[in-house]
Specification:
This protein is mainly α and 181 residues long. The protein contains 6 helices and no strands. The longest helix has 37 residues.
């Protein structure tokens, strides 16, 4: 089994090869897709680490005020090391837990990504209203409503489904029962 990243890259390469054919286009588009995936993953991890560092500095700064200073190299290094350690723990859990890792992270990433897209569309709707272009708000409002309804439904299913392979709470209950036995 090849895995998700190469499979996606082959699919993207197949599509783009048909759009822009050429002697070596399949190889080119495959490597382009792999590069795109790597850059997407790296920027997501980078953004997550930066945002996490600011949140961690803010949290730790409540207890140790010196750690709240974002211009301090020491405070920045401590918070960054904490965030990197959390990413490392997440990766480690993905390796040792057969139900964790990608099975847990991917749906959460997808749900949060779609929620963010819905919020962006709502922001676009507000901008249209502020610009007094109310007749165009359906362009952003309808997709936002559909996206938020679908994503909220998916989130509730991911939380509350009775099947432990799908629902987080049913999986937690399954583990609790197993620990008590």
């Amino acid at each position: 089994r090849a895995g998700g990243a190469p499979t996606l890259a082959v699919g993207i390469a197949q599509i783009l090869h048909h759009v822009l054919p050429g002697e070596n286009s399949m190889a080119f588009w495959y490597h382009f897709a792999i590069l795109f995936e790597a850059l997407f993953i790296l920027t997501a991890v980078d953004a997550g680490t930066r945002a996490g560092r600011f949140m961690l500095q803010d949290l730790l700064g409540s207890f140790v005020p010196a750690l709240k200073r974002t211009e301090s190299w020491t405070a920045n290094l401590i918070a960054t090391a904490g965030c990197v350690a959390m990413w490392g723990y997440l990766l480690y859990q993905g390796v040792i837990d057969p139900l964790g890792g990608i099975n847990t992270l991917w749906p959460l990433f997808g749900i949060s990504n779609q929620m963010l897209a819905g919020i962006a569309l709502m922001l676009g709707t507000v901008v249209l209203i502020k610009m007094k272009r109310q007749r165009y708000i359906w362009v952003t409002l309808l997709p936002a409503a559909w996206l938020l309804i679908c994503t909220t439904t998916a989130g509730f299913i991911k939380l509350f489904d009775a099947n432990p392979a799908i629902g987080f709470l049913s999986l937690a209950k399954k583990y609790s029962v197993a620990l008590e036995a």
